[in-house]
Specification:
The protein contains 14 helices and ten strands. With 347 residues, the chain is α/β, with parallel strands linked by helices. The chain has two domains: 193 residues, no CATH class; 125 residues, no CATH class. It is globular, with a radius of gyration of 21 Å. Bound molecules: S-adenosylmethionine. The site of S-adenosylmethionine (SAM) has 20 residues, from α3 and β5.
C-alpha cells in the first residue's frame, strides 16, 4: 500500500490489533508483529520506571530517539503521573511518520492526547495543512476513525486554509462541539497541560548534538543494528551518556551483543527486559538498583567474543555501510574468540 505521505512504508495489523509499519527501503519493521502498542509498554514504558519516577518528581525529561509513529511517546504520556511536568524530546528523521502519528490506528482511544499531538504536528508543518490531504488518502482501516472524521470536518468547514492558526483549545472545541458523538463529554483542554512535546526532525546524531538537555529516561527505537547500526555505535551512545544523570534509565528493544558491550564499556550497569521469561530488550543505568535482571555469565562471555566488538562512528558522520564495513575489518583482525567457537565450547 503506497501513497505520498509514506512512500517507503507498508502498514500491517499487529497481533494486539494496533497498526504497525514496515520500511521497504531498509527492509525492517517499525513495530513488533506481536503488538505495536503492547511492545511500547513491555519494552519501553514498564522497564523505564516512568510511572514510579513521575510519581516522585515534579518534572521529568524524556528523550524519544526514533519517535516514528509515536507509540512510545503516546504510551509515556498516558502513563506519566498527572502531577508531574513531562518534557519529551522526539528525534526522528522522517517527518512523514511524525505527521501520521496522531492518526494511525494505535488503539489509543484518547482524543485529547491525539489533539495534543495534532496541534504539535501542525506547528511543525508551519501551519501548512497540505500534509492532511495525504492522510485522507490512506486506507481508512489504518486510521483512527474519530481523527479521520475530524480532519474531514476541518476541510469541509474551511478551517484548513493555508496559514490559519489552529491551536489546541480551538481544535478541542471544534472536535467536542461538532465531531464527537459523545454528548456527555466536556472538552478537557487542560488534561495534558503538563506535557511538553518537542520534535527534532533530522538525523538523531546531529539533532542530539545540538540539544542542551539532561534526560531522566531515554528510549532508543532505531532500526535493528544489523540493518542500520548508525544509532547503535559506542560513539552515539557516548553522546547520549553525556546527557544523562546518575539515575537515568536507557531502554531499548535491542538485545544485540555489540550494543550491550558498548554500554558496559561506557560504564553503565546493563540488564535485560524479560517478557514471558524471554530476553526481549536492554535496560541500562548508572544506578544498579534500577536494573532488575542483570546480564548473566553467558551474556558476559558472549560480549567478550568478537561479536561483542561495538560499532564505531568516531565523529558521528559515517554511513551505515561504512560502519558495518569498519566493524567487519576490526572483527577479522581481532584475536578474540569467534562467537561460533564460543558457542561450540559452551554447549
Ligand atoms: C523502529 S522505527 C521506530 C518506531 C517508533 N518508535 C514508533 O513508535 O512508531 C525506527 C524509526 O527510526 C527512524 N530513523 C531511522 N534512522 C534515523 C536517524 N538516523 N535519525 C533519526 N531517526 C531515524 C525511522 O524513520 C523510523 O521512524
Amino acid at each position: 500500500m503506497y501513497n505520498k505521505i509514506m512512500e517507503y512504508v507498508e502498514y500491517i495489523k499487529t497481533d494486539d490489533g494496533s497498526i504497525g509499519l514496515f520500511d521497504k527501503k531498509i527492509g525492517d519493521i517499525y513495530h513488533s508483529k506481536s503488538g505495536a502498542l503492547k511492545e511500547a509498554f513491555d519494552k519501553y514504558i514498564n522497564p523505564s520506571f516512568l510511572k514510579e519516577k513521575s510519581s516522585k518528581s515534579k518534572e521529568i525529561n524524556i528523550l524519544d530517539i526514533c519517535s516514528g509513529a509515536g507509540y512510545n511517546l503516546k504510551s509515556a504520556i498516558l502513563t506519566a503521573d498527572n502531577n508531574c511536568k513531562v518534557n519529551i524530546d522526539c528525534l526522528e528523521i522522517n517527518s512523514d511518520v511524525i505527521n501520521l502519528s496522531p492518526f494511525i490506528d494505535d488503539l489509543i482511544n484518547d482524543v485529547d492526547l491525539k489533539i495534543l499531538l495534532l496541534s504539535e504536528v501542525i506547528k511543525l508543518n508551519n501551519y501548512d495543512y497540505s500534509f492532511l490531504n495525504e492522510v485522507l488518502k490512506i486506507d481508512t482501516s489504518f486510521l483512527c476513525p474519530d481523527m479521520r472524521r475530524f480532519i474531514e470536518f476541518l476541510f469541509t468547514e474551511g478551517y484548513l486554509t493555508k496559514g490559519s492558526i489552529l491551536n489546541r483549545s480551538f481544535l478541542h472545541n471544534i472536535y467536542y462541539n461538532y465531531v464527537s458523538n459523545n454528548t456527555n463529554y466536556t472538552p478537557n483542554c487542560s488534561k495534558y497541560n503538563n506535557i511538553n512535546v518537542r520534535y527534532f526532525i533530522g538525523d538523531a546524531r546531529y539533532s542530539l548534538k545540538s540539544i542542551d538537555n539532561t534526560y531522566d529516561i531515554v528510549f532508543i527505537d532505531a532500526f535493528s543494528p544489523q540493518k542500520d547500526p548508525t544509532l547503535w555505535t559506542i560513539d552515539f551512545l557516548s553522546l547520549i551518556k553525556s546527557k544523562l544523570n546518575k539515575n537515568s534509565v536507557l531502554v531499548t528493544y535491542s538485545k544485540s551483543t555489540p550494543l550491550r558491550s558498548a554500554l558496559l564499556e561506557l560504564g553503565f550497569c546493563v540488564g535485560k527486559t524479560f517478557i514471558d521469561k524471554l530476553d526481549m530488550g536492554t535496560v541500562a543505568s548508572f544506578d544498579s538498583s534500577l536494573i532488575i535482571n542483570h546480564l548473566n555469565n553467558y551474556d558476559l562471555k558472549l560480549i567478550s567474543t568478537r561479536s561483542g566488538i561495538p560499532f564505531r562512528d568516531y565523529d558521528l558522520s559515517l554511513s551505515y555501510n561504512q560502519i558495518i564495513k569498519n566493524r567487519d575489518i576490526e572483527m577479522s583482525c581481532s584475536d578474540r574468540v569467534s562467537m561460533t567457537q564460543f558457542l561450540k565450547n559452551y554447549y
